[in-house]
Design brief:
By secondary structure, this protein is an alpha+beta fold. It has helices at about 1-10, 15-20, 25-35, 60-70, 75-80, 120, 140-150, 150-155, 155-165, 175-185, 185-199, and strands at about 15, 40-45, 45-50, 75, 95-100, 110-115, 125-130, 135-140. The protein folds into 2 domains: about 1-55, Arc Repressor Mutant, subunit A (Orthogonal Bundle); about 60-199, no CATH class. A 3-stranded antiparallel β-sheet has the order 1-3-2. Strands 4-5-6 form a 3-stranded mixed β-sheet. Strands 7-8 form a two-stranded antiparallel ribbon. The protein is elongated, with a radius of gyration of 19 Å.
Length: about 200
Amino acid sequence: MEKIIKYFVSNGGFASMKELKEANFHSREITSLVKEKTIIKIKPGYYRYSDYGFFKDINVNLITVCRAEPQSVICLISALDYYQMTDFNPSEIFYAIPHSQKKRNINNPPVKAYFFRDRFYTPGIEVIKTKYGNLRLYNIEKTICDMFRYRNKLGEDLAMQALKSYLNKKKKSMSTLVKYAEICQVKTVIMPILKGILA
């Protein structure tokens, strides 16, 4: 069992059943470790080391989603939470995938998938490289504009809070914000708000 744990650690805390079998580990050993809660089943055939202490200085749930779903991009409220631009604590991880992509069944953590058409999915993706794997999320400006795009579903108050938080930052770019407002087709919504706040 120690060899399996060492394998997980050397692989950034994650492994698929295929990888484990190729490393000569038996499926019943994996099942036993899941029952003991030494490893967590993320989705069918994919596992994570359960020791949260191993994942230092990173949101393990965000990394888990990015590892389990290769095309996922952390978005909306989860991205706001990452950027510390909301006091709302989401109970699910919000992530975007291409509209044509089939959703994978992620069992842990709780997730909410959003299917973005390519014109909304591709722009603004940032990749943060960590020793546990790549964290993919939208940049701050794209996240704010996405919040306005989904304001009727997620609440305009959250979008407004994010925008005001952004405007209070020392490091901000109005031209970048306007650029993503155009991309997200919310420029006519955001511009009057900006003029009102900045007036």
